[in-house]
Amino acid sequence: MRASLSAVLLVAGAFSFHASANPIQTTRSSKHQPRELLQLPGIWIENIAVRHNGDLLLTTIDKGDIYSFNPSRPNAKAQIVASFDQISAAAGITEIGKDVFAITGAEYSTEVGFTPGSIQMIRADFSKDRCGTHKNTTAPSIDFILRGGDVGPLNGLVTLPSHPNFVLGADSTKGVVWRVDTTSGDAKVIIEDELLTPGPVGPYDFGVNGLKIFEGYLYFTCTKRRALGRVKIDAFGNKVEPAELIAQFGDADSGAATDDFVMDKNGNAFVTVRPNLLYKVTPAGEKTVVLNGTIVAPASVALSGNEKKLFIATAGDEAASIGGQVVELDI
Ligand SMILES: *[C@@H]1O[C@H](CO)[C@@H](O)[C@H](O)[C@H]1NC(C)=O
Ligand SMILES: *[C@@H]1O[C@H](CO)[C@@H](O)[C@H](O)[C@H]1NC(C)=O
């Protein structure tokens, strides 16, 4: 399956080198306009993590590659810094120690979704200088946290703040949240709730997708329910109250689907909604449209270290020969 998926994407990628279709304003000086920083032909960018040095780590769906990218250097190129073996999708990423990241991957196709049993979770450690005197820290050391078995597959990931060796992972297929001990690889379903499950209508058969923790609550997006919600948890990620709905995006028949999100230090959520929307939701649940129509299949969003910029990762549109993008927006 992987071979045929890659072949299709490679054809699309080759074609898009000749295409100029690009809906994004690229003028770097324009404020409050999304600016394209990067486009990867034929590749879906799924998730972003921001390193302490400001570099972005991008998980991608095509060959399971993880890219590193410096968003502040004009015309910087993305470099592959790690790759999953035998699977097409790198998905969730979360920092579990200073410059150490847990990253999940699985076999994925648009027809099947995630293939059960195909999960891999790695630890990518960027904290050591891999090239001695060259101070070249772009190549992490990699080891497996878990591989195969009945866990997940896991999409969005978040680290438990008071126990950072534990991560929570969104099982979008079953609509539950798992807790993984990254030191032992032990994993169990820790949160079940109807709001996490794929709802009855919607274009993608995915439940819980993105995860963030803020002031004792696990915030989550649920794709098919077009929803942002939250559930109160304890320090080990156990559910202590039923989940509550915070906001819903679009009408049931609008084709809207919620993907991943980020939260700022004041508790505002920035939520990506397919096919082309970015919303801001305040702690009171008030939602405003930040972008409409100027992004293509937004998949996730991250904040710069000073919280003055958003980085939006997109899946692009193969049919229109638009690759996955990283788009920057001043807020
Ligand atoms: C880092 O290492 C890679 C692979 O060895 C090399 O291609 C790259 O130029 C190095 N970057 C720096 C800044 O030294
Ligand atoms: C996005 O823009 C389109 C075209 O102007 C409009 O019809 C639609 O209602 C807008 N969507 C939202 C969620 O504001």
UniProtKB/TrEMBL annotation:
InterPro entries: 6-blade_b-propeller_TolB-like, Hetero-Diels-Alderase-like. The keyword Transcription does not apply. Gene3D superfamilies: TolB, C-terminal domain. It comes from the Eukaryota. Residues 1-21 form the signal peptide. Keywords: Signal. This is SMP-30/Gluconolactonase/LRE-like region domain-containing protein. The lineage of its organism: Eukaryota, Fungi, Dikarya, Ascomycota, Pezizomycotina.
